Amino acid sequence: MIYFCPTPIGNLGDITLRTLEVLRSVDIIYAEDTRVTIKLLNHYDINKKLKTYHKFNEAKASLEIIESLENGLDIGLVTDAGMPGISDPGYVLIKKLIEKNLDFRVLPGPNAALSALVISGLANDNFYFYGFTNPKSSSRKKEFENLKNIRATLIFYESPHRIIEFLKDMREILGNREISISRELTKIYEETLRGKVEDILNSNLTLKGEFVIVVEGNTQKEEMPDIKELLIERINNGQKKSQAVKEIAQEYNISKNVVYKESLNIDA
């Protein structure tokens, strides 16, 4: 069996008892960076064989892990911090395990995105986790363009050396929205700033530690188009009423029945 084990995002005391139990019981532990993982294992007096599993060797290491599983070994997989597979290595292996019909377990535990969402005070009934955006400003702006109409709260990760440019691009494309920006979560110097994007940019932001940015969703009210006017325009241009009803419903994401009822008031 292979276990995907979440690890603390800062405070070593946040690891779960079940994760410790699993790490003590498996034959091999695959780690994103063995230098980071060995500190955690030493803290809890766990002595296990360590191998690497990171984004640069995922394909090769996944095949090696599957071979070990087929030979009856138990394996634990961890990343440097948080949940494997969430903006961290793990997805490639999970896909291969499913393809091979091999059983696996994902243990619950620390996750920076969810912690930051709750602490943000922004709406959390619906949220959209995006993770890291493209490091290039032009590409990042295109990503923001694709996200700007989403009404759910947005969650991003960003590094300290890109956070200022990230916020500037966000302000340009998404507007001066309410945001919450957290860093060093669960650590001694944990900090969360809340306010408009402009406020955060003008604040004395400490450029240290990984950032989680929680962003208010699009709150602009959608204006309902004048359905009757759209129908008349298309019909006058030679389109059949039934076709006009179908296309308007699709283009404006309106119930076809609503458009059809409006069409009954038009002579054609």
Automatic annotation (TrEMBL):
<dbReference type="InterPro" id="IPR000878">
    <property type="entry name" value="4pyrrol_Mease"/>
</dbReference>
<dbReference type="InterPro" id="IPR035996">
    <property type="entry name" value="4pyrrol_Methylase_sf"/>
</dbReference>
<feature type="domain" description="Tetrapyrrole methylase">
    <location>
        <begin position="1"/>
        <end position="200"/>
    </location>
</feature>
<keyword id="KW-0698">rRNA processing</keyword>
<keyword id="KW-0489">Methyltransferase</keyword>
<keyword id="KW-0949">S-adenosyl-L-methionine</keyword>
<comment type="similarity">
    <text>Belongs to the methyltransferase superfamily. RsmI family.</text>
</comment>
<dbReference type="GO" id="GO:0005737">
    <property type="term" value="C:cytoplasm"/>
</dbReference>
<protein>
    <recommendedName>
        <fullName>Ribosomal RNA small subunit methyltransferase I</fullName>
        <ecNumber>2.1.1.198</ecNumber>
    </recommendedName>
</protein>
<dbReference type="InterPro" id="IPR008189">
    <property type="entry name" value="rRNA_ssu_MeTfrase_I"/>
</dbReference>
<dbReference type="InterPro" id="IPR014777">
    <property type="entry name" value="4pyrrole_Mease_sub1"/>
</dbReference>
<dbReference type="GO" id="GO:0070677">
    <property type="term" value="F:rRNA (cytosine-2'-O-)-methyltransferase activity"/>
</dbReference>
<keyword id="KW-0808">Transferase</keyword>
<comment type="function">
    <text>Catalyzes the 2'-O-methylation of the ribose of cytidine 1402 (C1402) in 16S rRNA.</text>
</comment>
<dbReference type="Pfam" id="PF00590">
    <property type="entry name" value="TP_methylase"/>
</dbReference>
<dbReference type="InterPro" id="IPR014776">
    <property type="entry name" value="4pyrrole_Mease_sub2"/>
</dbReference>
<keyword id="KW-0963">Cytoplasm</keyword>
